[in-house]
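Quick start: what a row looks like.
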Amino acid sequence: MSICAVIMAGGSGTRLWPLSRANHPKQFLALHGSESMLQATMKRLSSLEIDSSITICNEEHRFFVAEQLRQIDALGAIILEPEGRNTAPAVALAALAAVGDPLLLVLAADHLVEDELAFTSAVNKAIPLAEEGKLVTFGVVATSPHEGYGYIKRGAEKSSGYAVEEFVEKPSLTMAKEYYSSGKYYWNSGMFLFKASRYLEELGKFSPEILRACKYAAEGFQPDLDFLRMNTDEFYKCPSDSIDYAVMEKTADAVVIPMDAGWSDIGSWSSLWDVAQKDENQNFARGDTLLHQVKNSYIRADHNLVAAIGVEDLVIVSTKDCLMVAHKDHVQDVKIIVDKLKSESRTEWELHREVYRPWGKYDSIDNGDRYQAKLITVNPGAKLSVQMHHHRAEHWVVVSGTAKVRNGDNTFLLAENESTYIPVGVVHALENPGKVKLELIEVQVGAYLGEDDIVRFDDQYGRETEKL
């Protein structure tokens, strides 16, 4: 029987702010190694006989997914959710989109698995059970009493696994210690293996309203570049629920396979410190850092020099626009800062100073009341939309590469050190016709410099346009 990997790549990962933000969440970051969490998840499948893949993501993250999977030659189907509805509907859409009736191996894109051989072994043990019609979940063998994870209690032995006796919410520390000492409880990994048809059958039995909405949404599947779009109006009607609540806690065919594979959901800065390679003082340091008499700390400098002196048990993360300092015992409170940023209508909860776009990226290097300077990088062969602005003029200076510019009625090439000026209201476009990246400085001047002052007339990435 064929296996289809279903990778859930939604979510905002705000517990790892300021590195992970709503516009660029942790599954697209290289947090542990040189590859992004999404790429590492896909590569983890190389030892399994996977016939196809379906990645499910938010509309806003679609080009992250496509580009990162393309980089590792793992591009498969990508389903775009207009709005998150938790895991039960997401997997239902994948089951409805899958060709034939494969086994669905459901994985989160932002989890760490350090022992890939143990991971592969657990999946292979689960395959016969899934082929029999069981709904298999993977229980992580606990290494400590952990309050941050849900638990699965095992029941009677079932071949290479156990019947699921009970799913348990995140416990108190006292209860976690009892679970750990009993040896009958596993951490709930959120990974599953089951036939597409069996999942849909059980979903229809226990959560028919979810299945109904997803069927109507899937009837509207339409390909768009690398993506699969659904009937969004129908999907908005779908209730939000997890696989555990919607199906696994209710079905009589839930089976748990133990997995001892160095798993972590990387759910906080302290958990990232736990799995990081540390020095003799139990510090992890990355980037331009200087440490003196520092212990048990996680320090990451992605831009400026970070110097730490005589401290311990801290998390220090420096990005281009933020510095976050927290005690390791209080890293869960990062979400309080994120909520405060939202309530004050600040952009740092959502956007980095460096923002990725389907054509490349831009870095807002300076700004004032009536000006903003950006370093724009355009990938070879990429093109920004044909557009205009009501409130700002723009000056472009090429730093490296070659730019093909449309400025009003004129189209011309600009080389290094050459520039152009685009007045307010003039239709313009920018393209990289070369084989190397194009870099240019853009200086915006005007009364309003927001990103929503863009009127698009033509766009190759499927974004909304108006008639010229």
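That is the whole record. Residues 3-264 form a domain with the Spore Coat Polysaccharide Biosynthesis Protein SpsA; Chain A fold (CATH 3.90.550.10). The two ends are 52 Å apart (CA to CA).
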